[in-house]
Amino acid sequence: MGRGSDAPAARMGGPEPARDGASEAGGGTQSIARAMALLMLVGRAGTEGARLADLVASSGLSKPTVRRVLLALVRAGLVDQDEASRRYHVGPEAYVLGTLAAPRFGIHALALDGLSRIARQSGDCAFLSVPRGIFSVCLHREEGTWPIRTHVLQAGDRHPLGIGAGGLALLAALPEADAARIIEANAAALAAYPGYSPDLLRAAMGETRARGYALNPGLYVAGSWGIGVPVRGADGRPFGALSLAAIESRLGAERQKELVPLLQREAAALEAKLGGSERGPPPRPARPLARTAP
Predict the structure, then answer these.
(1) Does the predicted TM-score (pTM) go above 0.85?
(2) Angstrom distance (rounded) from CA 213 to CA 210
(3) Could you say which of 97, 126, 143 is where a domain stops?
(4) How many Cα atoms sit within 13 Å of 185 on the Cβ side?
(5) Which has more confidence, 151 or 20?
(6) Most buried residue, 61, 214, 226, 242, by most Cβ within 10 Å?
(7) From CA 181, how far away is CA 19, in angstroms rounded?
(8) d(CA 112, CA 270)
(9) 8, exposed or middle or buried, with CB in 10 Å at 0-12, 13-18, 19+?
(10) How big is the chain by its Cα radius of gyration, in Å?
């Protein structure tokens, strides 16, 4: 969101001037988008909470607009403000919503033990990502013990499908037609990722399917490499992805051969856990991981 779009808006919860239906719908949509964006920024701040100045800088909105939207979120219980530090935190109603959503997105809880094993055995950072429409969202980051780490991906980060090792593993595991549609839909968004293009993603998908795992050789941030594998549901479609990220010197070809089996074992174990749900047992695909049904 840029400052240029930060037009004056009526205070949430107060009277608004009469507007035609189209204008009212557009203004309401913009307000919702701002509120959700700020809620995500507060959530990504973690236990330390978010300062007002940081939220203004990150959102690109004016300070009065950020204050107004935060006030509405506080009234709704989605955001809470600490009286002493004045920092903003995720509120109790957000916790309730998360609890209600947990049965549907139980992959997060089920993946935690495996992510811990991956990070412990590799020494590097392990991630769980899930597809959300044409994007991938990082649900969890498990820190490794290696003293030099890459901090490119954090829990809550969202990128077009295909960005990063986890996102590429998800994209390559989709049927060909679905993957092509997503790449086309994200063509404009890829302009914000100088290392990427639709053609590069198409080529990377082919390489991923042939190799049997996704590799990000520092395309998003130079020197930050990653490898990833998909986690499939009962229908064979990717339900999530497990990935590792490290500095370039720790993810050379020989070490990839050591770490990919670790990711694949944990992906298989997670699929088995997910198979205990009503979805039924998910099949393991033969390697390489390509699944290109129309």
Answers:
(1) no
(2) 8
(3) 97
(4) 14
(5) 151
(6) 214
(7) 37
(8) 10
(9) exposed
(10) 21
